[in-house]
Amino acid sequence: MIQGIPIQCFLIVSTIMFFIGICGFIIRHNLITILMSVELILNSVNINFLVFNKYLFPHQLQGHFFAMIVVAIAASEAAVAIALFINMYRKFNNIEVENINEMKY
């Protein structure tokens, strides 16, 4: 246990975050909220990396390194996605998924 918190609590929170992210990705129509859903999914994966590292290998840091790699990838993905969203907004004047059907200029 991490300071008295059992592993089940972390896994429940991570699972709830993951499924909220999946539902947001499927249901939402705004590109910004879809990006936030992807970030929520990646954060739930980070929780799993860290908690399993703590319980299985408490004196090693592999889970922390994987979580840092996921954070770096998520930051670069968010930067590229926001740049694309800005260009789409400039061209189409909205960022709804249903209204954007072409990606060329």
Sheet-strand content, in percent, reads under 5%
Q: Tell me the series of helices and strands, N- to C-terminal.
A: HHH
Q: Which shape, going by the Cα principal axes?
A: elongated
Number of helices: 3
Q: List the uncertain runs.
A: none
Report on this model:
This protein has 105 residues and is mainly α. The chain has a domain at 30-94. The protein is built from 3 helices and no strands. The protein has helices spanning 7-27, 31-56, 62-92. The longest helix has 31 residues, at 62-92. The chain starts with 6 loop residues before the first helix and ends in a 13-residue tail after the last helix. The model has no long low-confidence stretch (mean pLDDT 89).
Mind sketching the topology for me?
Layout lengths: L6 H21 L3 H26 L5 H31 L13
Briefly, what is this?
The chain is mainly α and 105 residues long.
Please supply descriptive tags for the structure shown above.
3 helices; mainly alpha; 105 residues
